[in-house]
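Project outcomes to date are best conveyed with an example. Our students and postdoctoral researchers have been running inverse folding experiments weekly, and each run begins with a structure described purely in tokens. The record below, which covers 432 residues, was selected by the lab manager from last quarter's runs and is presented without edits.
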């Protein structure tokens, strides 16, 4: 019985939502372990499009349980709005969703604090999603945050909310902002009542489920290069998107995890600021952006596009211990005559194959490319490895060789069935 983690191997938007939705029919529970409504996971089921932000993609499978783990930060307004949208689409959210009582709550003042930080001339603007994610995690780590268990206890909530609001008021004043957002104590008490029936101790729930023979898929948000420890700090999100976060963010011990699977595009994208060595600065960037519809599903921002980056993938494979790699959006490269792959960096006159820790060093690193021939044949929708053009198979083979990780699955379109699982791969075994 395997429990697996599926997470982003790059800077997010790798197609995790599609893959988790596809795999979730083989699991009983899908659990999110970090992030918040900064995530946007797009899933197509036939012509129907769903964009999931806080709720794990497993919710789209009738009868499956979706769990929001303790490592997630929850904006109650965003959560209830997402629940409503899914209910309108006929999904039985109330019976399929469990929310951790230990998850932290995002308040409107978190967004204000984020705006102050992003707009401040003395601080580095990260290009965040403006959802209050960072300041909420700051309060969590600062041991003054408010958790779902507190939110649903009116007395505890009032006692914790007022000092936290006062704290934010002083920050706002220090930055010359006289009026803080509205006091939401009463309105959030109402929201708490609507959330209460879904609140559980999800660490017990998940561990009990494993004991009774159930299988769990842990769904990452963002990507390893946005991880607070392992990413391109400070241009990262504020949570542990890498595999380790799946344990701290759910209460499942590392011994309960049987496999770790990375999701990567056949190229790479990034939203927001920060170093990006293999970024494309010529019209081919636009070609990929349009062919791949690379516009943020949460903020609508155009995503920066680049060529597949081998050192980056080797690094994320190392810190996550990937068993297998899923390569998505292969079809987006169909029209290209040549496909460069970044195989190393040049820094201070030396060739390096490791990711430098300092973001300024990564920004200065010059990418070294090997150029492969494109296949210039349609791969869109192909579901068997043997049906891929030979040059596309060669491309995948080279990624496999250079990263040292098997390619266990290839995605050739946004829909569930536009996917192939490589026969005999470790991934196939993990999914059995
Ligand atoms: P996530 O955040 O990792 O779940 O990824 P997003 O949903 O933000 O972005 C991935 C986008 O690519 C979505 O619009 C998907 O519908 C789409 N997508 C996923 N896999 C494929 C694929 O193999 N081919 C194409 N053309 N689109 C894909
Ligand atoms: P999914 O799960 C891509 C980026 C933001 C910004 C940085 C910090 O859909 O892959 P934050 O609001 O989290 O404090 O912003 O992280 N970012 C993402 N980029 N996909 C995401 O999620 C992202 N979530 C956050 O653009 O650069
Ligand atoms: Mg996304």
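After processing, the design step wrote out the following sequence:
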């Amino acid at each position: 019985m395997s429990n697996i983690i599926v997470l982003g191997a790059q800077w997010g938007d790798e197609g995790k939502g599609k893959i988790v939705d596809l795999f979730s029919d083989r699991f009983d529970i899908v659990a999110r372990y970090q992030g918040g409504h900064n995530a946007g996971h797009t899933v197509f089921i036939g012509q129907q499009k769903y964009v999931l932000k806080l709720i794990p993609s497993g919710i789209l499978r009738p009868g499956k349980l979706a769990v929001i783990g303790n490592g997630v930060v929850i904006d109650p307004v965003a959560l209830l709005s997402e629940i409503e949208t899914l209910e309108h689409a006929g999904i039985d959210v109330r019976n399929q969703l469990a929310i951790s009582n230990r998850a932290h709550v995002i308040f409107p003042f978190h967004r204000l604090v984020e705006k102050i930080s992003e707009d401040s001339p003395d601080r580095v603007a990260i290009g965040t999603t403006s959802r209050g994610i960072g300041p909420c995690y700051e309060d969590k780590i600062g041991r003054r945050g408010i958790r779902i268990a507190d939110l649903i206890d009116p007395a505890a909530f009032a006692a914790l909310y007022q000092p936290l609001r006062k704290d934010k008021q002083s920050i706002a004043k220090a930055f010359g902002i006289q009026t803080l957002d509205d006091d939401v104590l009463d309105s959030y008490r109402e929201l708490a009542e609507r959330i209460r029936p879904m609140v559980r101790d999800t660490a017990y729930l998940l561990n009990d489920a494993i004991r009774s023979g159930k299988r769990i898929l842990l769904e990452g948000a963002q990507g390893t290069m946005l991880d607070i420890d392992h990413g391109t700090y400070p241009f990262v999100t504020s949570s542990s998107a890498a595999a380790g976060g799946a344990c701290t963010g759910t209460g499942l011990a590392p011994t309960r995890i049987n496999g770790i699977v990375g999701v990567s595009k056949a190229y790479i994208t990034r939203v927001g600021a920060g170093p990006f060595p293999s970024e494309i600065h010529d019209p081919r960037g636009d070609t990929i952006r349009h062919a791949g519809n690379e516009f943020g599903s949460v903020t609508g921002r155009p995503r920066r596009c680049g060529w597949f980056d081998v050192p980056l993938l080797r690094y994320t494979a190392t810190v996550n211990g990937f068993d297998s790699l899923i390569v998505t959006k292969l079809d987006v490269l169909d029209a290209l005559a040549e496909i460069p792959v970044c195989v190393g960096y040049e820094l201070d006159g030396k060739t390096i194959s490791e990711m430098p820790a300092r973001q300024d060093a990564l920004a200065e690193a010059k990418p070294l490319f090997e150029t492969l021939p494109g296949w210039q044949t349609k791969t869109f929708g192909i579901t068997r490895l043997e049906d891929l053009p030979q040059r596309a198979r060669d491309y995948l083979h080279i990624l496999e060789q250079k990263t040292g990780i098997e390619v266990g699955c290839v995605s050739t379109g946004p829909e569930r069935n536009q996917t192939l699982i490589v026969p005999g791969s470790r991934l196939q075994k993990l999914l059995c």
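The chain has a mean pLDDT of 96. The chain has three domains: 4-102+198-256, 104-193, 263-431. The training component of this project remains on track.
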